[in-house]
Fold each of these.
Amino acid sequence: MDRLWPDPAPDLTLDEAMVSFTLPDHSADRPLVAINMVTSIDGRAQIDGTAEGLGSRADRRLMRLYRAAFDAVGSGAGTLRATGIWLRVGEDLAARRTREGRPPNPIGVVFAGADPVQTDSPWFTGDETRILVVGSGNPVTEVPRGTELLRSPDELPEPRWVLRRLAERGIGSLLLEGGPSLNASFLAEELIDEVYWTVGPHLLGTDALRMIAPIEAGSPFAHEPRRGRLISALRHEDELFLRYRFGRPGSIGP
């Protein structure tokens, strides 16, 4: 692993390169929100409907290191259906979180809206706390033990409403792992604070989904893009691992 920015250094292990990784302070009213995605060089986030094959073993380790820093890890119901999602951090990082006085794994959050939910998915197993967020008309009425069902007053849960509910539960940071439509809903409300982007060394030339889907009502940033600041850049063989930070609306502050 080579650290390209800041403080360039070659020949590091991934864990050495990430040893100083910390999250910025978050406001009291809502959790800090970051998204973690892998894409091809031409910006596609899927091969044959999933992200499998876009990232390497190093990328999968990096994903766990990111997860370990957060209070909660979330994804949309579409990602749950496509991959079964597994949001844990692995034994070594779970032990580290325990030594730090935190639960072994982050809280799992799935955003379902009106979509049906497969309650027999592997996501519903394990000892970690889970929260299933559904819309007002979602047919789900019962969830497996260990899962909290959080029903929105709206047909599609509004991101700010969800973040307020998470803050009430003591959650100070949320890592989103897709899909692109969920990412777009948070971008539309200027609720993305950091982006962790793995660029895999592939060209696809397909119409597969991108990291962030087009915002349905039209993007408020089409003519005045949200501008981020590059915080770090790592290289592993032919992959790039980039971290960007976005200030609160109207600023690019830390």
Note: Strands lie at 2-5, 32-39, 72-76, 107-113, 130-134, 147-151, 173-176, 194-199, 229-236, 239-245.
Amino acid sequence: MQYLSDIGWQYQQTIINLYNSGIVPDIISMQLDINKDEVYQVIKNQAREEQRKQIAVKQVSDTSSVGTFNLDTIINIDLAIKHAQHSMWNALKGAEPQFNISMIEETQDILEKYAKSKITFVILHIDIIGSTAMSMTLPVERLATIIQTFTQEMSLIIAAYGGYVLKYIGDAILAFFPVNLDNTSLPCINAVNCAYSMIKIMHEGLNPILNEYDYPKMGDV
């Protein structure tokens, strides 16, 4: 069995291509005769790099220009779905969900900037449908893991669309998008597109992994 340190960049790209085509990491490992942990690491590194690019795009626009262009045109939703699958898969295997503390700091910074001025926000409230049913069928620790992973992935997509997480309320998230007076409609468009992307990530990213464990799906009524 080979290790990535021995086989180099071309095999790493092959892993990413296979993963993006829908092949699960365990199968990739067997097909290429590569250590399974190394395959997961390549996928994780790729997801981190794409997140870094998305965050960089967001940081390029300063406070005065937030919400002045349609972010849906630059966000790779397919990659976000793959990242959500990978995160939920790892979390259910025992890995601790990791929150990006810098996003909380960004929220505090933006609120401080607007503390002494009047500003319009687009508010986005997200709540898991079916969490009550999940709480009745899953152990508390497993339910907490699922909700933490859901919260992590939704927070990332909120940030990618130019929004900020105000607070977490159980299995709900309250987010806001600052409105630029030069273009009041785009923050609304970004917030709506963000909501659509979140639903897609939940149904196509998180729920398939839950289904593999025979757990209740999010959004099921």
Note: Strands lie at 121-127, 164-169, 172-178.
Amino acid sequence: MLCRNRALPPANGFAYLSLLIFLALMGFVCAMAVQVGGLVHRRAAEQALLDVGLEFARALSSYSDQTPPGMDDQPLSLQELLLDARHTEKIRHLRQIYPDPMTGSTEWGLELDPDTRTIIGVFSLSTQRPIKLGNFTPGLSSFNEKKLISEWVFSADTWANKELGVDPRQNNKSNIFNPSTTGLRSNDKPALPNPPVKDGLINPRELMGE
């Protein structure tokens, strides 16, 4: 019997090509959805970091304002913000050591006074670059154009500027150093080199719960 090669019917060929195009488009749409979802989550986490950071800034300001005469107005550890041992009555400046929204960890970078080794400010140990680069609320303009999230340092001055609704003085630089580059930590933990930090994200709504 003589066999002849038959060409694929035009209709079937068009349907096959349409299916390939459809699958390619679906893959593109899914990839974009994942990217946009990740971007939205990152923005939410950065906003949560600003909220939590301001809680630490408020606590540092409260600790300083309620300093008895002759005592240090800055804590040696974050634990002192939970229970101020300088007073006979129970005074709490911070409800809890909140987790870092960017890393999911309760370990924070601490900016220390070079003379007293007391805590001046708190910052995230995230190694990520921020999405938010400007349009910060008054008092946080020093965060503009920072290249790393870890450069967002929250201090008592941060809270004072936020409360007054003014921007910090650009030329008023404190004589401080960044322990994240030296391995120096507060009394909360031994002074060890910084472990590698894996950036993850947690739900910002879980941060401020009881």
Note: Residues 141 and 167 are 6 Å apart (CA to CA).
Amino acid sequence: MADSPRFEASSAPAHEVRADLLVMPAFEGPLPGPGVREVSQASGIDLVGLLRESGFIGKAGDRQLVPGGAIRARNVLFLGVGPRFDADLRTVREAGMRAGAASTPYVTVASTIPQLGSPVDESARAFTEGFLLGAYRFERYKRGGGEPSKVEVVRELVPASAREAIRRGTILGAAARWTRDLVNTPAADATPELLADIARATASELGVGCRVWKKADLERGGFGGILAVGMGSSNSPCMVELTSTNGPPDAKPIAITGKGITFDSGGLVLKHSDMDWMKSDMAGAATALATVRAVAELELPLNVIAILPFAENMPGASAIRPGDVVRHRGGRTSEVLDTDGEGRVLLADALAYLCEKEPALILDSATLTDASGLGPDLWAVMGTDHSAVAELLEAGDEAGDRGWEIPLWSPYRKLIDSDVADVKNVGDHGFDTAMMAALFLRDFVDDGVAWLHLDTGSSAWAEHETDLRPEGATGSPTPAFVRFLERRVDGSAG
């Protein structure tokens, strides 16, 4: 996992804190945010007037850098955070992201932004998470390693009571950054075998149980979907099983899985365009792995099992053909009419296997389609347990990783009836949406099992840079998954 700065809680007044950069918020107007009046008095400068003269309004994203002058901080960065009455944890997190992006040339950073939200511990956590994501850049493949962030210490000007919240925010921010690292890694390097090795090393480091199912193991176990998707590649498919048993011995596990297609060419139904970012098709499995890591580091008293199915979808001589029938774990069959609808074929095996474990709940995420209609800011969730769906949506809101529920509309199920198998992987008349993919997966989930499926086809990868995130992997839905599990422990669920 990439190095992260050290975050500290400090009770020092803003005008007395030592830092290379002091970051303070200003409301629309401009109006002074926390710490601005005190710094103005200590420096003898009307900072709000100075901002007004420079054209700074205070809208979200506005920024103005000024010398520290008479105070101990060498430089002061003012960040606009919008209307004062709108300030909430989302405001704090997004200001933290902008602060992280702007702070990379400095070694020590201090900020009053965590004072914006309430309660202060949740505000400090949101700032920490946002700062880590804002400072993220993937430059591993640049000559000399690129220009990594110089930030070593971030002092949040909040009471010492917020230290635990800051620690948890550091873990969650690091987990989302690690998800990004895994997804951004080129497919030539992030092969099924390498990702299995990373999972094994992570499990060993954290004391988590790990079993790697190689190709021969998958054949013996009847995992026909995973095997079929990987048939056309010289990189053999595999599956990683992780088990963490920190909960009560008699408690049913929470199961997590995700699509792990390390590269998706479309197979024999070759993609026509946009293949350059198909290394991101394993974002679901990366989310599952990063979630297990965060659960272990947070020491959540839960029993968790995660399945990471990895395969590369290539058009090799032995690739699966349109019209072939696959026999999945548990015996159900599917007719593969579109080899570019491979993610659901692979994930079906993982879901069938997890049902055998009699879990309390199954969470899965997958970049199956971009046809949820929700765009890059929201994942789509469907499921068999509406109260759990509501919990996950609330968790996503709290984590700044938002989604929206769309229905599993059962009348559409007939569109994937097959004449030769139990189900086919695409609908009649070319009807293929996030909902249709979920209806396919629903066939592999036992009745009575609570199951939540996230389609992240448009949200796991950002095709364009914004002021909040770079182009590339977003880390979603790792924050939502981790927050969901935390809520299960702290009693917020239900």
Note: The first strand starts at residue 6 and ends at 9.
